[in-house]
Amino acid sequence: MATSIDISDLNIYYGDFLAVEGVDMTIRARSVTAFIGPSGCGKSTFLRSLNRMHEVIPGARVEGKVVVDGQSLYDPSIDPVAVRRQIGMVFQRPNPFPTMSIYDNVLAGNRLNAKRMKKSEADDIVERSLRGANLWTEVKDRLGKPGMGLSGGQQQRLCIARAIAVEPQVLLMDEPCSALDPISTAAIEDLIHELKSDYTIVIVTHNMQQAARVSDDTGFFNLKAAGQPGHLVEFNATSKVFSNPDDPSTEAYISGRFG
Amino acid sequence: MSLIDERPVAATPAPAAMALVAPQIPAYAPLLAAVLATGLAALAGLLLGWSLVAVVLTAWALLVVGLPAWSAAIEGERRAKDRLVTTVVWSTFALAMVPLASLVWEVVANGHAVISAEFLTYDMRGVLGAGGGIYHALMGTLVITALATAISVPIGVLAAIYLIEYGKGNRLARTITFLVDVMTGIPSIVAGLFAFAVFTLIFGPGVRLGIGGAVALSVLMIPIVVRATEEMLKLVPEELREAAYALGVPKWRTIVKVVLPTALGGIVTGVTLAIARVAGETAPLLIIVGTTTTLNLNPFDGRMATLPVFIFSSVTTGGKYDAEQTARAWGAALVLVAIVMTLNLLARAVGRAFSPRTGR
Ligand SMILES: Nc1ncnc2c1ncn2[C@@H]1O[C@H](COP(=O)(O)OP(=O)(O)OP(=O)(O)O)[C@@H](O)[C@H]1O
Ligand SMILES: [Mg+2]
């Protein structure tokens, strides 16, 4: 079972500050959707509103509709914890748990929810997730060591492993490769291709080639002017966005002519 | 006329070789200067008959002037300033250590003589002159402090969790924070009176109970625990909470399994310091617990002896056996200081053991 997400007329606020305005789009199931756009245009903000992480920030709120599998995400009857179990997330900055070992960090999603499992099963999940995130060979001899003892890029891959260990239906990735070398980036892109057959994937990236390589659909966010809310300029199939975009500003952004 | 300006250009000075080596006074210079300054001051003091304070002040003045002057002559101005500031910083540190060191010295010097196996294992039943011990007071202090800890740690930690994780600056949370701040300033005698009033209401006039002392100490401890825990919880990065939420972990589990473990080292240290702070309280215990000469381990049944009150009553009773009583008071003081120091060391060890580990 994979999940599609329908967003209609979504406004996202930080207190009184309208950060993202009037987004309409449909994220297809079993596909990769990429968001591109200049820094500060609200890509992370929008991504976080897709698994109800936005409301964690005091004063932050959302207007409009996000419908996942026919259920409105912001309906009062929806349990945000259940939402986040189905919609996983990899953050822009790596955030491994400082009190846990590498092994426990990968299993955090299971362990923190007090899921009981056999040792062999746990070992299996850890190995599979770490292999998926291209980290296994580097850490297999020190799984018991603290997760904070890894390099920045290794920590980021650890966080990716942690997110896929719980096998969410949808995986939101906020610039997952921004701290990674080309080899690890390629491994993550392979992973995305692999996961795509079962999951819905949304990825924010500043790397145009990456968006073109991995995604099926691309959304371009932009700011009208400094201090104005960000908005969705164009949402189309990736092939169309990169060859023949509807909006001239999309073409300008992709080809490197800004403004 | 050619377009190129052929006027001679002022010769640019050849770049001097970068001077990385500078003359230095030897590494033992500060020590040597300190010894010389002390020696000179002592000599002057002996010849002119100064008091000790005058000698120390002179030595200090000599050092503060002499070392930077020596440094300025050889090393240059920047190093000399550095020497001056370093000397001042060290002397303020030494100044801060003086009361502490002299207090510990005084207590050990006066107290160590009476410490013996008997002193630690006997109570004062029927003892008037020499002999007897502080076992009853020691146990009383341990029981009452343990009870106070058992009351205040859950209340304090949970209150802090509410304030940081749930209250997030709403009106109730701000009111509680204000009240906690007020509570930190409550004089201990008032806490004692409060407990006395409460227990008098329940048990009638003239009540003396160990548990009352624990309640009074809790009134003093809770605000400290709340503040310490609050500060530690604030230090836990928001990103860690978000990481847990994004894995579908409910809020309460996130708090119990991610936030608290991350902050545990600091919380334990705060709690231990709070214990150390109230272990030596005298006034509230004097009011609500009273004192006795025999061992009483039941905090719900009558008077109990405690170390601070024991010290107080030993030195204030007076009379024929004053010398023995004073000696016992010093012994009890030594034991009390030892307990508090052990607690502090324990807090450091525990804090280190629980703090998040990094590195491979
Ligand atoms: N916690 C916050 N409180 C208030 N405003 C915020 C907060 N986080 C982000 N913003 C604002 O919301 C807007 C969008 O920020 P967002 O982080 O979504 O940008 P982004 O597109 O992800 O940028 P980048 O590519 O640099 O990551 C910005 O104007 C930012 O200043
Ligand atoms: Mg971002």
UniProtKB/TrEMBL annotation, chain A:
<dbReference type="InterPro" id="IPR017871">
    <property type="entry name" value="ABC_transporter-like_CS"/>
</dbReference>
<dbReference type="InterPro" id="IPR027417">
    <property type="entry name" value="P-loop_NTPase"/>
</dbReference>
<dbReference type="InterPro" id="IPR003439">
    <property type="entry name" value="ABC_transporter-like_ATP-bd"/>
</dbReference>
<keyword id="KW-0547">Nucleotide-binding</keyword>
<protein>
    <submittedName>
        <fullName>Phosphate ABC transporter ATP-binding protein PstB</fullName>
    </submittedName>
</protein>
<keyword id="KW-0813">Transport</keyword>
<keyword id="KW-1278">Translocase</keyword>
<dbReference type="InterPro" id="IPR005670">
    <property type="entry name" value="PstB-like"/>
</dbReference>
<dbReference type="Pfam" id="PF00005">
    <property type="entry name" value="ABC_tran"/>
</dbReference>
<feature type="domain" description="ABC transporter">
    <location>
        <begin position="5"/>
        <end position="248"/>
    </location>
</feature>
<keyword id="KW-0067">ATP-binding</keyword>
<dbReference type="GO" id="GO:0005524">
    <property type="term" value="F:ATP binding"/>
</dbReference>
<dbReference type="InterPro" id="IPR003593">
    <property type="entry name" value="AAA+_ATPase"/>
</dbReference>
From TrEMBL, chain B:
<feature type="transmembrane region" description="Helical">
    <location>
        <begin position="27"/>
        <end position="46"/>
    </location>
</feature>
<protein>
    <recommendedName>
        <fullName>Phosphate transport system permease protein PstA</fullName>
    </recommendedName>
</protein>
<keyword id="KW-1133">Transmembrane helix</keyword>
<keyword id="KW-0813">Transport</keyword>
<dbReference type="InterPro" id="IPR035906">
    <property type="entry name" value="MetI-like_sf"/>
</dbReference>
<comment type="similarity">
    <text>Belongs to the binding-protein-dependent transport system permease family. CysTW subfamily.</text>
</comment>
<dbReference type="InterPro" id="IPR051408">
    <property type="entry name" value="Phosphate_transprt_permease"/>
</dbReference>
<dbReference type="InterPro" id="IPR000515">
    <property type="entry name" value="MetI-like"/>
</dbReference>
<keyword id="KW-0472">Membrane</keyword>
<feature type="transmembrane region" description="Helical">
    <location>
        <begin position="329"/>
        <end position="347"/>
    </location>
</feature>
<feature type="transmembrane region" description="Helical">
    <location>
        <begin position="134"/>
        <end position="164"/>
    </location>
</feature>
<feature type="transmembrane region" description="Helical">
    <location>
        <begin position="52"/>
        <end position="72"/>
    </location>
</feature>
<feature type="transmembrane region" description="Helical">
    <location>
        <begin position="258"/>
        <end position="276"/>
    </location>
</feature>
<dbReference type="Pfam" id="PF00528">
    <property type="entry name" value="BPD_transp_1"/>
</dbReference>
<dbReference type="InterPro" id="IPR005672">
    <property type="entry name" value="Phosphate_PstA"/>
</dbReference>
<comment type="function">
    <text>Part of the binding-protein-dependent transport system for phosphate; probably responsible for the translocation of the substrate across the membrane.</text>
</comment>
<keyword id="KW-0812">Transmembrane</keyword>
<keyword id="KW-1003">Cell membrane</keyword>
<feature type="transmembrane region" description="Helical">
    <location>
        <begin position="84"/>
        <end position="105"/>
    </location>
</feature>
<keyword id="KW-0592">Phosphate transport</keyword>
<feature type="domain" description="ABC transmembrane type-1">
    <location>
        <begin position="138"/>
        <end position="347"/>
    </location>
</feature>
<feature type="transmembrane region" description="Helical">
    <location>
        <begin position="176"/>
        <end position="203"/>
    </location>
</feature>
